[in-house]
Write a structure and sequence with these properties.
10-stranded mixed sheet; 9 helices; 4-stranded mixed sheet; alpha/beta
């Protein structure tokens, strides 16, 4: 069992099935059993996924000084998850609303309150982080000191920069420069995806870069092998809601990579894990445990293709 520090956004999330986009205006619609409220946010999605897979997790986040945060912390304590690095300094906990249809598309409204104006001090995290096997640092502003100082701890650093469109993106540069493992989505990439990954690698020299491609699966750049490979998506159960699929892919990869598994094998597991997750609604729900995941993987033949090779030493 590995121990991972996970720092990022935790919020209250409302998921509403609208069946189709665009949403037709009506003053009121009775949607019985079509709306669920729970805790989510990238950090909590990752925490719950890693916890389900059997890892020990140390959550770091900034919450509100409200009943919502107290309920969340109580739930963590019931699960024996440490709460010492959950800072309730805001007036309200962040919230989000997710509208999703029957085809897997979604529209997310995310209210970050004033969390982007705050910073989590590195000194308050340093000792706990030093005891962890890896640091999962989400691309939120309050991780600024953590990501800039993470390498000083000599730990594996993983980040997900979400829907990156420019390798020189000013906001995400600090995360790209200081992470060993980088995940991102293809949603805003118009170029050939493998070319974008190669450009990203030559700029930042990350060990592994993974690009989530939704229904198509994922691409992985492995700098040690000097290859870019694709892993096609799989279907393990009917899709209900795709929110949190990328977080699930990221979490499962982290779980196996920290164990020392080869990157491509980690991604193959992660694709199956994410497929199972989207059979349930809610970003922080639907995760398989390791035994269940092994059973799913044993019945699935992955389609893996080498997209290209490259010289990792050539700039």
């Amino acid at each position: 069992m590995a121990k991972l520090l996970v720092s990022g956004l935790i919020n209250v999330e409302m998921n509403v099935c609208v069946h189709r986009f665009p949403v037709e205006y009506t003053p009121i619609e009775y949607a019985f059993h079509q709306a669920q409220a729970d805790f989510s946010g990238v950090a909590l999605n990752v925490i719950n996924a890693l916890d389900s897979l059997g890892d020990a997790v140390v959550p770091v986040s900034i919450l509100g000084n409200d009943s919502v945060a107290r309920t969340l912390i109580s739930g963590f304590k019931d699960r024996n998850i440490p709460c010492g690095l959950l800072d309730c300094r805001m007036e309200q906990t962040c919230t989000s609303v997710v509208l999703f249809d029957d085809c897997g598309r979604r529209k997310i409204y995310c209210d970050l309150k004033d969390v982007q104006e705050l910073v989590f001090p590195f000194e308050s995290v340093k000792n706990e982080a030093a005891s962890c096997d890896a640091l999962v640092l989400c691309n939120i502003n309050f991780n600024d000191e953590l990501i800039r100082n993470a390498k000083s701890l000599g730990k594996l650093v993983l980040t997900d920069v979400q829907d990156l469109s420019d390798i020189h993106d000013a906001y995400n540069r600090r995360f790209l420069e200081n992470a060993d493992i980088v995940f991102l989505s293809d949603e805003k990439i118009s170029d050939r995806h493998e070319d974008f990954l190669l450009s990203l690698y030559h700029e930042y020299k990350n060990k592994v870069i993974v690009l989530g491609q939704g229904k198509k699966g994922a691409l992985i750049l492995d700098s040690e092998e000097g290859t870019v490979c694709s892993v096609e998506s799989v279907m393990t159960r009917p899709v209900v809601n795709t929110v949190g699929a990328g977080d699930a892919l990221f979490s499962c990869f982290a779980h196996y990579y920290v164990q020392g598994k080869p990157p491509l094998d980690c991604l193959k597991k992660a694709v199956v894990f994410a497929s199972w997750k989207i059979g349930e609604s809610g970003g922080a729900k639907g995760f398989a445990d390791e035994k269940h995941l092994d059973g799913l993987c044993s019945r699935i033949q992955h389609a893996v293709h080498r997209v290209c090779a490259f010289d990792p030493h050539k700039s």
